[in-house]
Amino acid sequence: xRVTELAQxxxxxxxxxxxxxxxxxxxxPEFDPTNPIALGPVVAPAHTVDGFxxxxxxxxxxxQGVTLADSTVNDQYLALARTxxxxxMARWLESxxxxxxxxxxxxxxxSAEYLLGRQLDNNxxxxxxxxxxxxxLASCGLNLSTLRTQEIEPGLGNGGLGRLAACxxxxxxxxxxxxxxxxxxYEYGIFRQTxxxxxxxxQPDTWLTLGNPWEFPHPERAVRVDFGGHVEHxxxxxxxxxxxxxxxWDVLGVPYNYMVPGFENGWVNTLRLWxxxxxxxxxxxxxxxxxxxxxxxxxTFAENITKVLYPEDTTPQGxxxxxxxxxxFVACSLHDxxxxxxxxxxxxxxxxxxxxxxxxxxxxIAIPELxxxxxxxxxxxxxxxxxxxxxxxxxxxxxxxPEALETWPVEVLGRLLPRHLEIIFKINDAFLADIRxxxxxxxxRVRRVSIxxxxxxxxxxxxxxxxxxxxxxxxxxxxHSELLRDKVLPxxxxxxxxxxxxxxxxVTPRRFIKLANPDLAALITDAIGPGWLTDxxxxxxxxxxxxxxxxxxxxxxxxxxxxxxxxRFLQKRDGITLPEDTLLDVMVKRLHEYKRQSLKLLHIVSLxxxxxxxxxxxxxxxxxxxxxxAKAAPGYRLAKETMHLMNAVAATVNADPRVQGIxxxxxxxxxxxxxxxxxxxxxxxxxxxxxxxxxASGTGNMKFALNGAxxxxxxxxxxxxxxxxxxxxxxxxxxxTEPEVAELGALGYTPAVFYESNPDLKxxxxxxxxxxxxxxxxxxxxxxxxxxxxxxxxxxxxxFESYVATQQEVDKKYADQDAWTKSAILNxxxxxxxxxxxxxxxxxxxxxxxxxx
Length: 853
Ligand code: 26V
Fold this sequence. Notes:
Structural class: alpha/beta
Distance between the termini: 40 Å
Mean pLDDT: 94
Number of strands: 25
Strand content: 5-15%
Bound molecules: ligand 26V
Low-confidence stretches: 1-31
Radius of gyration: 28 Å
Helix content: 40-55%
Shape: globular
């Protein structure tokens, strides 16, 4: 049968006999039904357009129960996704079999967040099906790009930390490292952001309502997780103490498996996300007595645990439900991994079979949980259990802000996890005894390093617990790792200098170059040949092309096309009208004071003020379009006020004919991974303007540079390493260095000094304060103005002058398109280091010591 016979344009009746074709399924050569871990009779459909179409139609018919003619876009999307799944299935099973069979040491990545982005495109790319799918669907009268947009991205993370986890599991699979990502399947991910009168209004993220074709639920493998209650102690005949936890309540954790395919390498790892279910559907006695509401209350309570992602990304609220989430997923995951080793496994060998990476402090409760399993459940003695535990964990710190280092009140932790609190105390007692032995009489030191802090309330410092138990502790960029060692955890680094290391973050070039910017990817392949997507340092070979006029022209053309595409997309999506060919200046990241969106705003307001008052000749200004993207934690007042001001400035500037064609500002709502994939390839200028010492790494900075945007940035996080690589001539550095920040902080930062001494700054702030962006109301943005003038911990005004001066350098350079393009190409050529493949190799060499298969 020819493919064309199958093709039925949507809307016209399909011939049922044509559609009821089954895919080719044969018994694989390795199939041995008596071998329990043999690869089953699963063979991928033929890797041809014909094979693809058969499978797709089969899925429409048997999976969705519709004919092509009757199918909705959602039916088509689901069938397409399942088709792609089939292609990956044999490889997935084979990868699992090989991991299991070889008794390999596995990486268990423990993360409460995975900000995955859309799955369809990535999985099509990984399985080398993109062209086949496009052609196959076209032969059915369907358009791949339409089906693509049907997918709601799984927003199971807040920002950088969650997106990094997603890049890392992509690289682990691409490097064929046996790994499992463990996390939480939130029913509602990061909220959908809307603006009402310029203010953020949060809507629930209902990502699961139309069905999720990428997940494989396994309710039969549910794990029971206990909470609350009390602990009993008995002493045996030999005088040994035995603890028995008598829990107060429990829930079930149901695993949902996701495929994590490597890039065109036949390897597929697993991401296992847990959902909470009530252990009993309802209380039958209550139900029978007629109180239906009370009968299901327990169920609602249990299932709340994985209901929603906490949208705070820097300031932990210390909410009990959050601790429930953390313990829930960690307990499920440890149980799951240990069970997979089989009943006969000797747990003393555990460190040879797994290394758990703690992605920040969120999963640190795994440490006392493993101790509990080893001692209370498996009967090992304490010292042996501690020795094992200390060899199973590593800890990555993702922040330097002291308020983001998680602590739990002893009272809360003890109520929810009484046995774990006992274990933590015991770990702490032994540790402090060692400290006292090492530093006799130094009680100040003992207090500083203790896991338990006494002020402002008695609480457990999760970062200390992690540092004590971990083999390695790492920061996420060189500067950050240095500050972590010397300023955040100095006593620990003095104690264990070798424990501390750095692994600079990276990003996956599959999603952030190949998928996001296919034209640039094609140009690169033309220039240096294939293979660079998995060997990103090869981008160096592009360097000579910076001097090639034709290459520059092609490069510029791609950037211009990406801009046009973005502008049209935003017009259609949000009704925003933007010029197509100005310098595109993009600042996208979570909204936080330390990231200093307000500094960016001051720059825009200052340009606007100077042009409209005649201080600045509009002809001397490079026309620019400013794009913002940001979500703020719903309870973060000042961040929300800042977004309000961003929208207000956008409205005023865009409506003012005096700056028309010179300044445009847009703040499209609901910034997410999908939007990032549109902005990054189009940007000319990447804004990375945090106060030095505050942004641990940043990863957006890497994505922009790899797509040929130049960075304007402070000497912070991974900016430092980007600048080292691309060179000063290809990077716009401004602002104080971290030591300068520390010095100014020690002297006492007085914002008024900067306000009074810089007339442009004064005029910009005064303009905001005058009500120019709030219909004359001077009170609307007063909290922002007074924060910047009196309280700002992040010293925005101190860096204003240097920022504005450096922005003038940007204008100058952009006027020379040849020079700009050369620098842009050099940014691409010199940033291969920032592939997450390199980060994972560094983790393997410095921390995990696992083998790639
Ligand atoms: C801590 C906590 C504590 C519990 C409550 C919720 C919460 C949320 C976030 C944090 C710490 C901040 C984590 C984070 O997103 N850090 C970012 O990690 C990126 C990947 O390493 C890095 O590029 C960013 O610079 C860093 O801000």
